[in-house]
Amino acid sequence: MGGTRQAVLVILCVLRTVKAFEMEIIPAERIVAQIGGTLILTCNTTGCASPSFSWRTQMDSPLGGEVSRHGTYSTLTMNPVSIVNSHSYLCTVTCDERGKKEKSVKVELYSFPSDPIIEINPSLVDGESATVICKIPDVYPSDRLEVLLKKDEHVLHEKNFFEDESTNTETKFVTYTYHPMAEDAGKELTCVAKLPIADMDFEPKERTSSQKLNVNFGPQNTVITASPGKSPMEGDSLNLTCVTQSNPPAQIVWRKYLAEESIQHLIKNNVLFIPHVHFNDSGRYICEVINLVTAKTEEATVDIIIQGAPVITKFSIEPSTTVQEGENVSIQCSAESNPPPKIILRRKSDNADIGTYSARSILLPSVMFQNGGDYECVAENKYGNSKREITLNVKYGPKSTVITVFPAALKEGETVTIKCTSSGNPAPVISWKKKKATGESEKISENATITIQNLKSQDLGLYECEAYNQFGKEEKAVELYVPARLEGPDQMIPLIIAFSSVAAVAVPAVAILIYVSRQAKINGSYSLVKALRLKV
Predict the structure, then answer these.
(1) Which of 18, 189, 211, 447 has the most C-beta neighbours closer than 10 Å?
(2) For the domain that residue 415 is a member of, what is the CATH number?
């Protein structure tokens, strides 16, 4: 009995030390593989020192892989995995006296290798039709593919391929046409591709790609800002800034309307800077913006009015500041300012306005020498005033020639001064002549004043003054004589006799004239001869 028990114990120990013959496939039962990747199936055994392996598909299709043995296990490597590997694979292991065993694993395939690719063709332009293409490369099975096209969070387009019957990988395209707007610039366009196969375990099942929208638009909403304002003071600096919305940035050209309605081109910059404005900088400024991509243009305008005290821009005498008496003369004074100036033109010596006008001329027809002198132009407004002077020089021939003799009552032996004065422009040249007994005139001096020392009888006589310049001449004459003097009674007698004789003749003559006058009134006419006869 004891020996039997020992034998039984030995057999039990041997049985415990010998492992059972087992096999497994790694991974087990079901595996999901991506087409294009690498898949290794391992058939492993235990409890068999020298197993033999064989691989096959349940449909006896080609393995589509490479079998390798490594002692107690065998591998089936599929690199790359292709559509032909979509099978259930069976591994059979034979272990001599222990028999054989089989196990299978199902290989399921998918392909979702990369993110979508977004193509926008052509470049986006505001308001113009554009095509967006979302490309999903090498998808399998495509009948499970779902695609969303979104702008930010807004869904633009949605598509699925449920009715697709493709049995291999395919690149799928989703095309969408829409009209982008300017406000879309900078927003994200996103393509979301989903491959939602519920009973397959793989990641990711969703892939996305995004692209910022670059929408070409404009120019639009163009405005001009003026600093310090649209009505700066004369002499201030002025900044005109043109702001517009445009993609790509617009080209900017400044222009200005001139008085004759033509256009003056200024700078190509969004800021027009005038360091010291003048009144002639007033006007309408135009900012023209051009988008070369969209071929669109837009304009903005601003009216600038320069304010300030008047500035006299013209003060002139036409045809010249020096004229000849009798010519027509125009005196012109103009000024600029804002508000418009009051302009006063006057001759300074008159202390009175000749006239008030704006940017016109005053005509002095047939100018006279009295019109010569300094003229003043005054321009004024609420900001101040401006003054300028100009001189009108009137050329004329000699006038108002006068001779003076000192002393007035002459006596022989005295000193006598004779002076000739005359007005004219240029100042007249004075010359003297004296008449001789023969009646001829003799030039005696070219000075305005003649001085005769110790007056004698031969100094008496007629003196002629001539005043002349290039515009004419004027002559005046004076006779020097010494009045007769009565020195005694002998001289009085002849004078009394002479006076009596004149009176004796004059009284009857006056009586006859009175009589004739009365007869003429009665008869209407009268004959002096007949009257004398009647008297006789």
Answers:
(1) 189
(2) 2.60.40.10
> Domain check: are 287 and 341 in the same one?
no
The two structure tokens encoding residue 421: 């004065």
Sequence-ordered list of residues with C-beta below 8 angstroms from that of 160, at least 6 positions apart, any chain: 145, 146, 147
pTM score, whole prediction: 0.57
All residue ranges of the chain with pLDDT < 50 are: 1-17, 355-359, 486-536
Listed residue (274, 297, 296) closest to 285, CA to CA:
274
User: Which residues are within 8 A (CB) of 65 and not within 5 positions of it... i.e. 6 or more apart?
Assistant: 39, 41, 76, 77, 78, 79, 85
pLDDT digits (tens, 9 = 90+) for 376-409: 999 999 999 999 999 999 999 999 999 999 998 8
Note the pLDDT tens digit of each residue in 262-278. Answer: 788 888 889 999 999 99
* Domain presence at residue 10: no
- For 35-51, the pLDDT digits (tens) are 999 999 999 999 898 89
* Residue 338: closest CA among 495, 242, 230, 247: 230
The answer to whether residues 155 and 88 belong to one domain is no
Using CB atoms within 10 A of its CB, is residue 194 exposed (0-12), middle (13-18) or buried (19+)? middle
> Domain of 502?
489-535
Q: H or E segment at 489?
A: helix 489-523
In what order do the strands lie in the sheet containing 66-70?
22-26, 39-46, 73-78, 66-70
Average pLDDT over the chain, rounded to an integer? 84
Domain count, the chain: 6
Whether 362 is covered by a domain: the verdict is yes
Gap between the Cα atoms of 70 and 41, Å rounded: 13
